[in-house]
Amino acid sequence: MTETFLPVAEPDLGELEERYVMEAVRSGWVSSMGPFIERFEKSFASYCGVKHAIALSNGTVAIHIALVARGIGPGDEVIVPDLTFVATAAAVKHAGATPVLVDVRESDWNLDPELVARAITPKTKAIIAVHLFGHPADMDALRTIAEHHGIFLVEDAAESHGARLSGRRAGALGDASTFSFYGNKLLTTGEGGALLTDDDAYAAHVRYLKDHAMRSEKRYWHAEVGFNYRMTNIQAALGCAQLERLDSMIAKKQQILDWYRAELADVDVRLNPKIGAAEPVCWLVALTLPVGTSRAHRDGVLAKMKALGVDGRPFFYPMSAMPPYEGARLVQGDAHVSTSLSERGICLPSSNKLLREDVVRVARALRSALA
Ligand SMILES: *Cc1c(COP(=O)(O)O)cnc(C)c1O
What is the pTM of this model? Predict the structure, then answer.
């Protein structure tokens, strides 16, 4: 019997997605005007409990416009976690600002607020907190710091659709938040993103900048340089369908994570964290091998799993290890947790199509790779 390859991620698309996308195509509204855009923005804002959602072309430009619309640029410092997907740091560079890398903590793999407090200088204009793999960052502590210094607090919620902290959704925990709807995210529009905020004036400014900085009162007059960061009606149609199914997709992923917890209970690994008042979602099933595991050993484990038809993904590299960011200021404590997690971390197959027997197979492959 040939066993199928089990990939880390697959989009979860069904009949509803097909129906809405067909409706968009048949309506002729295939570009960035059309009813699905507003419907998606309104429903996603309401899902997250935030006043405004602005649909954008992807999650990276969402971070970029979040900074630019706030007037952040050259000479300004923006704090980002050292362990994240590169887009968080790249967007700071796109804005012409200086990323300041702050180490994460072992407990939830997110920004360490004590180190954030130490990283602040008179030039610090924003903190971008990432909810890595679906676990909310310590937003209460970060908010206290941000308010004390009058700094803009942004959530990069690209990996945490539907997560909660003390009952409030990810996306509603900062001054502004950004989402990605890339194909491997919890909710996909193919490519896509959004910026959410409660601030009316700021939301209006983002809307204006994302559409070539054009005012409806004076069309084709551009008082400043804007962007084309619009989402299409077809993408929004996909998003509307996905949003109706989001809670059930989140529940399915949680089920898969629970199966992994049961299957790997006796293996010396730590699966997705859950600490304090956080109600994480599982974007990807993620685990760390014991402290002290080398990158080479972890890579060997991934290679052995692949030979058994099981996909696995290493954690991200720390930003500070990569050429564009190695000169950036890095604030860490005694240990460099981002490096350690990066060397020990593995993401396992997390597709919603997985059956319990697939999870059993992955667990068996991991066990044999670790032996
Ligand atoms: C996916 C992701 C992004 C970027 O999203 P794109 O839509 O691919 O541009 C940004 N930040 C984090 C943490 C992500 O995981």
Answer: 0.97
